[in-house]
Write a structure and sequence with these properties.
heterodimer, A: 159 residues, mainly alpha, 6 helices, elongated, B: 432 residues
Chain lengths: 159, 432
């Protein structure tokens, strides 16, 4: 798990750098050299989606997605809190599974029928696959949270 | 019926603490299944919405803000602002507000301003005799100016979701932001007059202003140049907001490494990774909200809502009041990003039908959601403020409520009912 996370973070780091440099170069080329970089947005498509969905997967691992937690603020009982937390993690996991299935169907379809970008002819299933990769990782991490929370509930009810 | 159940699912899952993107996805899945839609169109739709160069400005501004935060810009801005307002009675409160305005023009985020400015300003305010609760409430309120002073991530989102001009949306919140800043300064002044202050001038303040201006000015210049580069580049027509954000991030790297020397390889790596994670949190939320809003639009939810509102009253004054209350309640339950994603596609067609200018509505939404960040039960910035200020919500809530009533509410009313205030700058700079 730690190795996977390290790889994810490296991808996020290098993708961020690529985007910063790529877009700054566009401005430099346009206003200093009076040249246009050909279809820069297509070149940045894959690193952009890698940041978006690797970032979302990392947030799933860290449990840092934004939530309201209103009930949690008002419920005092630790047992009730851990049951709520378990239900929330199960709902999250099931949602991730459904999204992974829908995204897999779409990526498979685009592998057979999907087009290419206009400029650099990048097959579109590659950026689509980054969305799938993100949801697969979110499934893995949310499953880990489900298991952790089941164990936590068992511990709290004294099983 | 399905829509009512969907709304119920949305509220219940939200209240129970399901992460917001998954709240949107659960509701979408329910609607797809119950209304018999084929889900195959949803993923490509979500992808196509995210594949937009304008949206890329958000992660880049997050990265730029993160690099400037870790690079030591916040302290220099505070020192610089203190030269001008430090000697005025209650001046440190004004320094707090003005420094947050400047930092907002760099980072575009309230949370970034709060976490950067809080640890620097709180000890100084307390040393001046401000109570911990008031000082924390003031910094928390002022930090939200980052949402209203351009560039603002919230306004980029609004413009993108509502298909409006990013530049006009940026400009729409400037005057409400300045009104709010002025009102916060006035509240600070009245508070200061009513309380017995030590009024300790630091040794630094007794140094002649010229030499302090030289010292702090030189030190703060690289940081202060950033909003000039960003906003000048955008409004000068040299760069798009996305390119300006990339240039800002690139600019922040040498400033942090070699000028301020507070950035090293490790903090640089961590900042980029943390910014990417924050980006992921926002983008997956946008992705999931886009799927839900697609279904909402297919089911004509904005049309139903318009008809419902018009069945209650046709008075524009009251309709705007109801819309404000609706956004405020959403803002009380959700964070600003989720709320703008939910409110814009549903309410923008409604207000356009009522004859409200979409750029005017940008400011209404901005001020409302800023208020929502401070209003319990969710109040994410109020909780963050209590963590930064190491004080309890109980201590902050009184002064925060005072600021909500006497700074935020008047700003909201002026923004809502005096569209000329909001539209003045967009019309002046961008024309009609």
């Amino acid at each position: 798990m730690k190795f996977l996370l390290k790889v994810q973070k490296s991808i996020m780091f290098f993708s961020s750098l690529l985007i910063i440099i790529g877009l700054s170069l566009t401005v430099f080329f346009r206003y200093v050299l009076k040249l246009d970089i050909f279809a820069i947005d297509e070149l940045l498509l894959i690193p952009t989606f890698l940041i978006y969905f690797m970032g979302a997967a990392t947030a799933s691992y860290e449990n840092s997605h934004i939530s309201a937690d209103i009930v949690d603020s008002y419920v005092k009982s630790k047992i009730v809190k851990s049951w709520i937390s378990l239900i929330v993690s199960i709902l999250t996991f099931v949602t991730c599974v459904v999204m992974t299935i829908w995204t897999t169907e779409f990526v498979l379809w685009s592998f057979d029928n999907g087009g290419k970008t206009l400029g650099w002819q990048i097959p579109l299933f590659i950026p689509y696959a980054t969305v799938l990769l993100g949801f697969v990782l979110m499934c893995v991490y949310s499953l880990v949270h489900v298991i952790t929370k089941i164990l936590s509930v068992f511990r709290k009810v004294g099983v | 019926m399905e829509l009512m159940i969907a709304l119920l699912i949305l509220i219940i899952t939200l209240i129970f603490g399901v992460p917001v993107p998954f709240v949107f996805l659960i509701t979408t899945i329910f609607l797809v299944v119950s209304l018999g839609y084929d889900p195959s169109f949803l993923i490509p739709y979500g992808f196509s919405k995210l594949d937009n160069i304008v949206l890329l400005a958000i992660p880049l501004f997050i990265i730029a803000g993160g690099l400037m935060d870790k690079g030591g810009i916040a302290r220099r801005i505070v020192d610089f602002t203190e030269i001008f307002f430090g000697k005025v009675k209650g001046g440190l409160g004004i320094v707090t507000v003005v420094a947050c305005v400047i930092f907002g023009a760099i980072s575009g985020s309230g949370a970034a301003a709060l976490t950067s400015m809080g640890p620097i300003l709180l000890p100084r305010l307390q040393k001046k005799g401000y109570s911990k609760g008031f000082a924390t409430a003031l910094i928390t309120n002022a930090s939200i100016l980052g949402l209203l002073i351009p560039p603002s991530a919230l306004m980029i989102l609004y413009a993108w979701v509502g298909n409006q001009s990013v530049l006009a949306s940026f400009l729409s919140t400037v005057i409400p932001g300045l009104i709010l800043a002025t009102l916060l300064c006035i509240i600070n002044y009245i508070y200061m007059r009513r309380n017995d202050f030590k009024d300790e001038s630091s040794n630094e303040i007794s140094v002649p202003i010229g030499s302090r201006l030289r010292k702090s000015g030189i030190s703060a210049t690289p940081g202060l140049l950033m909003p000039i580069v960003v906003l000048g580049g955008i409004y000068g027509g040299i760069m798009t907001p996305t390119e300006a954000a990339a240039v800002a991030a690139l600019y922040a790297i040498p400033v942090g490494f070699w000028i301020y020397k507070e950035l090293n390889k490790k903090t640089f790596y961590t900042t980029l990774v943390e910014s990417a994670t924050t980006t992921g949190v926002i983008m997956v939320m946008i992705f999931s909200m886009m799927l839900l809003s697609r279904i909402f639009i297919m089911e004509d939810v904005p049309g139903l809502l318009t008809n419902f509102l018009l069945s209650i009253t046709e008075n524009t004054f009251l309709l705007l009041l109801m819309i404000n209350i609706f956004i405020l309640i959403i803002g009380m339950l959700m964070d600003d990003v989720s709320a703008v994603l939910l409110c814009t596609p549903i309410l923008l067609p409604v207000v356009i039908n009522l004859g409200v200018d979409p750029i005017h509505f940008a400011a209404i939404i901005g001020v409302n959601l800023g208020m929502g960040l401070l209003t319990p039960p969710t109040a994410p910035l109020l909780y963050l403020g209590s963590r930064v200020g190491k004080t309890s919500i109980k201590d902050i809530i009184g002064p925060a409520l005072l600021m909500l009533l006497f700074a935020w509410l008047p700003t909201l009313l002026l923004t809502t009912y005096f569209p000329e205030l909001v539209l003045f700058l967009p019309k002046l700079i961008l024309g009609n």
